[in-house]
Amino acid sequence: MAVGTHKVGFAREVANRIVFIVNGSVIEEGTKEQFFKTPGHWSTKVLQSKIR
After folding, report:
1. 13 near 5, Cβ under 8 Å?
2. Which of 1, 15, 26, 30 could form a disulfide with 34 if both were Cys (CB 3.0 to 4.6 A apart)?
3. Distances from the Cα of 19 to the Cα of 13, 23, 28, 42, angstroms
4. Residue 31, C-beta contacts closer than 8 angstroms, at least 6 positions apart
5. DSSP for residue 24
6. Domain spans in the chain, listed from the N-terminal domain onward
7. C-alpha angle 34-39-40 in degrees, rounded to nearest 5
8. Long-range contacts of 20-27 (CB under 8 A, 24+ apart)
9. Is-above-0.90 flag for pTM?
């Protein structure tokens, strides 16, 4: 099942994999562990700095 959300906390709780999309482009894709522990793209790091 694919679910789209702007609620990062919700995604952290329920996701197995995360696809982070900005302006229609896939910026980062991987397991939630990869996404939250070792973000690769600068925009993912900016997003996470706002939610921590």
Report:
1. no
2. 30
3. 15, 13, 6, 15
4. 16, 17, 18
5. T
6. 8-51
7. 115
8. 20/44, 20/47
9. no
Which tokens is 18 given?
């995360």
C-alpha to C-alpha distance for 11 and 9, rounded to whole angstroms = 5
Q: What are the residues whose beta carbons fall under 8 Å from the beta carbon of 22, sequence distance 6 or more?
A: 43
Please report, in tens digits, the pLDDT of each residue of the chain (52 residues total): 899 998 988 999 999 999 999 999 999 999 999 988 888 888 888 887 777 6
The distance of Cα 43 from the centroid of its chain, to the nearest Å, equals 10
Amino acid at 29: E
Task: Give the position of tokens 């921590």.
Answer: 52
